[in-house]
Structure prediction request, 912 residues.
Amino acid sequence: MIFDYETLKLLWWLIIGILLIAFAITDGMDMGVAMLIKLVGKTDSERRVVINTVGAHWDGNQVWFITAGGALFAAWPMVYAAAFSGFYFAMMLILFALFFRPLGFDYRSKIDSPRWRNNWDWALFAGSAIPALVFGVAFGNLFLGVPFSIDEYLRTSYQGSFFSLLNPFALLSGIISLTMLLAHGGIWLQLRTDTDIARRAAQYGRYALLVFVVLFALAGIWVANLDGYQILSMGDKQGFANPMDKTVTTAAGAWLNNYQQTPLTMLFPVGAFTMAATAWFFSKINKPALALMATSLMLAGVIMTAGISLFPFVLPSSNHPDISLTIWDAVSSHRTLNVMFVAVSIFVPLILLYTTWCYVQMWRKVTVEEIENNSHDSY
Amino acid sequence: MIDETFVDLSRLQFAVTALFHFLFVPLTLGMTWILVIMESVYVMTGREIYRDMTKFWGKLFGINFAIGVATGLTMEFEFGTNWSYYSHYVGDVFGAPLAIEGLMAFFLESTFVGVFFLGWERLSKRQHLAVTFIMAFGTSMSALWILVANAWMQNPIGAEFNYQTMRMEMTSFTELVFNPVAQVKFIHTVSAGYVAASMFVLGISSWYILKGRDLAFAKRSFSVASGFGLASILCVILLGDESGYEVGEVQKVKLASIEAEWHTEEAPAAFTLVGIPDSDKQVTHAAVKIPYVMGIIATRSLDEQVTGIIDLEKQHEVRIRNGMIAYKYLEKLRSGDDSAENIAKFDTLKADLGYGLLLKRYTPNVVDASEAQIQQAVKDSFPKVGPMFWSFRIMVGCGVIMLAVFVLSFYYNAHRVIEQKRWLLWAAVWSIPLPWIAIEFGWIVAEYGRQPWAISEILPTFLATSSLTVNDILISLTGFIVFYTGLASVEGWLMLRFVKRGPSSLHTGKYHFEHLEDSTSNSQITDEQGVNS
Prediction:
């Protein structure tokens, strides 16, 4: 074993965070792009330009999501079990929406019919907007606590309903998630297209940034007044993972405790705001590459902000706070965390390497002219 | 008590979504290598027709690939959404190969597949071939890791139950990866995928030849498919999955059920070609037997026995009784009475804990099971013989027909007389569905044959579910059926449209319908118009 159990548990919290950030930056980008197809593209060729900026990459990007799911299964099986079955219909909604994406990207331009293409444009919109929204809603519910329990044989059961997930705070989180990806996608299009398409995309991207900043600030104020969860006592962090072995209390504003204890972590929320402003500025002066870096850091800032606020909780239980799932007690065994840590350390750098190669090879400004000349070899 | 309807619906949903997903996986597995072969010839010879072949079959591959990706997501969701106790109970072991599949294989496949489709103008010939190769390699690696995970469900080695965390935990990653069942499954499954893709290309090419369209294109495609298909079908048959059936208890159960072998026969066992298995009386009526064959299929030897169901039942009964004792000690340990003596007693019997859990169907406390309940649990520890017996024979039957088609196609193609053998070309067209039938029934043999276990001998399926309701599953299952029917209709329609249009859909100006369009007025072939890219 390279690290002791407690260190590995902490590292795995970081790895899941990194996978989610990579998912937001890559797949979130093409989700943002797909949401903008109809807004930014006025003609069919323009819409194809929008789609072809991510045509070669959406599938690889989506694997960040699949891998994050797999990593959750392997490293935090209790969380995977409780969250996926608890949020049953929310998960089904995400899944059914995601069906539209592979088919939309691949089938849309294969048939030369306006109705066919228009339907797929809407399918791509739904397939991207719904998951973006529901992910945010799910995250929002973590802050409120999720009504679930665990029995003596560690079987989890959920006591809420699908509609109880759609509360005001969670919906606010959903719209934050939606606008941040919309902004990121808009800036990507500003970088990878030209003329009116880039101009319109940048415009929508900056609008989204403004809405995002306002809502993210609002959520911050809201969270400060929510009942947060705190661990009063728990068993040995080096011992076997057992979610039943701790006492937890709730207190108003407790979700902000970590920022008081470790002020350096303020970097993440402050960074998210700063990067949003930076992105807006660079987009405005037409430096989209810098703006895209800023939106990427902004996404990282938002996800880390959520992670730090909840830390060490992953899935707080509103019914039985004591059995809330945390990074210390809902995890896999020492050996599995170790094996998976080695796997991640080998493969993530490799993935970044060849993904970069693919992006570099396919890098260009996609133009209406290019699409019209290569009509049969483009999406 | 266990709600049987709920369990059955959960299983039905998983079966429907897995079988549906598996309609698209085999073509992806095989087609990627066929594309590698075609493109390699293009890069080596520089002849454009091979580039056109890669692009056209690549388009059909893409139509199939999209729906394969979409429906694959379902499986990853369902372990958590519908089998949450399973996820908790074995996530420590089963999650690892799934996550590694994403990291090592699916990333590779998915990152390069977009470049394969859209990178023709942006990469050099060699670079593009490399991309195609990596995509194919990634696809087959993906199958490897999924089958490592699946093989662990069939033969769960390298793991141990931990009463403190109430789950299975990994004891050896190497054992998990080098599970002998995983190796045979991998070879068998990917070669079956290669056969499916070969039959697909062979059948469609035959149809073009029969129609006298794009002959140069069709005959070259036919050659590639017949060669690759012959090699693959030999691989499937000679390295059949059954060779893995001698390892692992549940694999033995499967074998006995497939063969409807009630009593252990002296080695080498005969193979029952056809017959009517009768589970109540435990006999097979009207059996037609071929001597030696079963022993050879199952054990690859003439002197090893294939254990019969009645003998396996006796063994299971012993294990169920041990499992009840194991459960008693587990309860003591869970309630905090973890003396060294209790731990030691539990450890000696915990391998049979899963058999004890079979009784949870009848009594939540397990230890108070009646004699009748124990006998019932013994009966439960086998899948129904009828479906296993017939599924296996359908699969093998399809395989034998396909072998004949590939052998003859390869032979006549090598002698350059394939165009005259119209009956064989028609046979190839009509054989297109066979690999899919064989594969789906193969899935049933492997996964239905695993019942009553989710994880062989460890976790019964009825315990592995989520805490949901019958209505929850009815809603989601209806959703899947509606959605999947829609997706399949769109896919099938689009696929058929491109198949009918053939290489003319590439718009190179060289193929059948484009000649027609040049020589006649455009309006005459409205049916074929509208296919864009």
User: Anything to note?
Assistant: The longest helix of chain B spans residues 48-82. The longest strand of chain B covers residues 271-278. The radius of gyration of chain B is 26 Å.
